[in-house]
Amino acid sequence: MTASVLEAQALRVTVHGRCILDVPRLAVPGGRWTAVVGPNGAGKTTLLKTLAHLLPSAQGRVHLLGRDMNQWGGKARARALAWLGQNEGGAEDLLAQDVVMLGRLPHQSWLGAPGPSDRAAVEDAMRQTQSWDWRERPLGQLSGGERQRVLLARALAVRSQVLLMDEPLANLDAPHQADWLLSVRQLVRDGRTVVSVLHELGMALQADELLVLAHGRVVHHGRTDDAACRQALVDVFEQRIALHQVAGQWVVLPK
Amino acid sequence: MTRAGFALVIGLLSAALAVLGLCIGSTGLESLRQMAGDATAMQIVRDIRLPRTLGAWLAGALLGLGGALAQGLFRNPLADPYLLGSASGANLGVSLLLVALGASPGSGGWAARLGTTGAAFVGALLAVAVTLSLARGVQQTLRLLLAGVVVSMVLGATAAMVVLWVPDIMRAMQAFILGTTAFLGWPSVALLGGALLVCLLPAIGLARALDALALGEASALSLGIALPWVRLALVAALALATGAAVAQVGLVAFVGLVAPHLVRGIVKPTHGWLVFLAALMGGALLLAADVLARWLLAPQELPVGGVTALLGGGYLLWLMHRRRL
Predict the structure, then answer these.
(1) Can you give the pTM of this predicted structure?
(2) What is the DSSP string of B92-142?
(3) Is A213 found in the same domain as A248?
């Protein structure tokens, strides 16, 4: 068993007096890909934000790479953990390459100009998501899928040990979903840790670990090749889905 | 067009406008031609036209910079530098001073002029302080916007009532509300130049944080940006830029809103370039408006704020027509 890169204790998030996340204990194993799934409103995004230390109102403790989140400096934490949010909008006037270069901010000193290693990381990331060709177009002129690939490149350009992604497949067409899968597998092979919230259950079952959430609680956390894991998935969606194995992959169909 | 090329173009345009600004005035080109031999002509060019020209450019630059900062901070392309309530605060400050003095700006010489500037500045800063306390700090931008709207409305209404009670000050107030570059002297130029330097430093230093903020608050935080400090520094720069400009030239409309738009329409800048280019553009715009205001009806002159409002409004209408807004 690999050591945990993210460990959380007694996580609790309350909004307007209602508890939307209650996770007593959670350990995300390092060097693996964990997919977070669950019905709408299960608290997936909230959990991811809490793990990334982006919710000031969250209670509880999170350790990143064995060190308490509060003891990390802002930039050091940003180098260790990258975040890709969903539907944040904005940055319409920034060129795609300027957006991806923002991923290098934690590596640069204040006012320091980007160096050759920053430019190399940007080009690598953009080629990996096949967004290099429109590096000089403003973000506002890209389609939803193109935009998502630029934002993904922004998160990859950080080259962090841990990468948290909230619905990274939104707006991506099938070939680029497959590319995303290859990118994630490569990251994991390199020893990096990926946690992604996914609505595409078939894709989620390709992950190493599955974290099933419902009503702000973890109802199952385990390896995807385990039958209990698939049962938990069917249960959390109220038996409205069926899993079938086709050509060695799990396919999710409505029931 | 490249970003540096664009900066060069606006720089050259500003220089050309500045030369025009030296040539235009109630005594026309005569003063410039007789400058060498005539002490009065020399004085007109050196002590009236030159500081007025430089001051108009600097005030415009502060408003353009303020507009770029406001639009970046509030992540809203329609934000303008007055929305923290500084304009209505300056307005009320000046109207109260005029009531106390019973004088109109310009008529009372330097003392009254300095008083007006001081009252406008204090009023602007107090209004921003009230806005910030109502919004409980600078961290929630939506609260900040709403508080700014509330403060603007209340202070604006109060100033209007003051004018209604003491109608004698109406004419002087109207000149201030429309904005005027007529009273800019060398002290104003020094003040505006100093304010521009002080505001440009944090604006350019924190420009990359504004870029990151454009991606969303969560992304900016995840990139290690210390958002609370960034917001604090930029709101302070915004308040100083608008306060200084409003105190010197009154409530010049549209320059702060339009300058960053014009820049973004021509190049796609990061915020580092945007704050710099919007300042250049704002300077060129207000100087152009000032030259027009002095030239159109010479030897009479139009209030410069009226010219910017007409030109700025026309430009926004054209933008809407082109469906680029």
Answers:
(1) 0.89
(2) HHHHHHHHHHT--TTTTHHHHHHHHHHHHHHHHHHHHHHHHHHTTSSS-HH
(3) yes
User: Is residue A255 within 8 Å of A239, Cβ to Cβ?
Assistant: yes
Asked whether the beta carbons of A8 and A24 are under 8 A apart, the reply is: no
Contacts of A88 in chain B (CB under 8 A): 215-216, 218-219
3-state SS, residue A134: helix
d(CA B243, CA B235): 12
In one-letter notation, the amino acid at residue B94 is V
Q: How far apart are CA A184 and CA A163, in angstroms?
A: 10
* Residue A59 and residue A165 in one domain: yes
At A189-233, the pLDDT tens digits run 999 999 999 999 999 999 999 999 999 999 999 999 899 999 999
Classified as helix, coil or strand, B180 is coil
The answer to whether the CB atoms of B268 and A95 lie below 8 A apart is yes
Using CB atoms within 10 Å of the CB of residue A171, give its burial: 0 to 12 exposed, 13 to 18 middle, 19+ buried: middle
What percentage of chain A carries pLDDT values higher than 90?
A: 73
Say whether B218 and A49 touch across the interface (CB within 8 A): yes
Q: To probe the interface with A, which of B219, B227, B266, B325 has the most A CB atoms within 10 Å?
A: B219
Are A152 and A168 in the same domain?
A: no
Reading the block at residue A219, the tokens are 């109802």
Q: Give tens-digit pLDDT for A40-98.
A: 989 999 999 999 999 888 999 999 999 999 999 889 999 999 999 987 777 888 999 99
A127 plus A175 within the same structural domain? no
Longest dimension (CA), chain B: 66
pLDDT greater than 90 at residue B79:
no
What digits encode the pLDDT tens for the residues B220-255? 999 999 988 998 899 889 988 998 898 888 888 889
- Taking CB atoms and an 8 Å cutoff, what residues of chain B touch A45? none
**What CA–CA distance (Å, rounded) separates A83 from A154?**
9
Q: Which domains does chain B have, with CATH numbers?
A: 3-321 (1.10.3470.10)
The answer to whether the CB of A165 falls within 8 A of the CB of A155 is yes
- pLDDT of amino acid B243: 87
Is residue A108 in a domain?
A: yes
Check B222 against A154: CB less than 8 A apart.
Answer: no
Range of the domain at A39: 4-65+161-254
